[in-house]
Amino acid sequence: MKPRHKKLMFIAIGVAGLGLAVALVLNAFRSNLVFFFSPSQVAANEAPQGRTFRLGGLVQQGSVKRQSDGLTVQFIVTDTAKSISVEYKGILPDLFKEGKGVVTQGKLGTDGVFRAEEVLAKHDENYMPPEAAHALEQAQKAQKTLVAK
Hints:
Blueprint: H1 3-32, E1 36-37, H2 39-43, E2 53-59, E3 65-66, E4 72-78, E5 83-89, E6 101-108, E7 114-121, H3 130-148
Parallel strand pairs: 1-2, 5-7
Antiparallel strand pairs: 2-4, 2-6, 3-4, 4-5, 6-7
């Protein structure tokens, strides 16, 4: 084999290895990408079926129901326009309360119930995730335009 052919073979192997590495990184990135949706967007079928995503809004007053096992909790997340039932099995954060902001991560079941794997509560009086605040603002604007008609 001539030196020129060896050099081309090493370059081809290097390019193939680099392409494989890029494909693996992009695949890992895509599988770990989690999008945020409001209850109005979920109700409008904009949320993915069978994929993990984040659902955020306010915990509806009087909606928290604890099961007898002590770990399973059902509650409703609302953006004041639409509401989605959420089921979570685990220990809730200390700051989780009715009427307060929450972001949950999980999957939407075929029955329309969001099965949360993780629940995040706001950390102080004034904080709300930007996505949740924007979703609440949009839902309130939409509700005002419906009332005005």
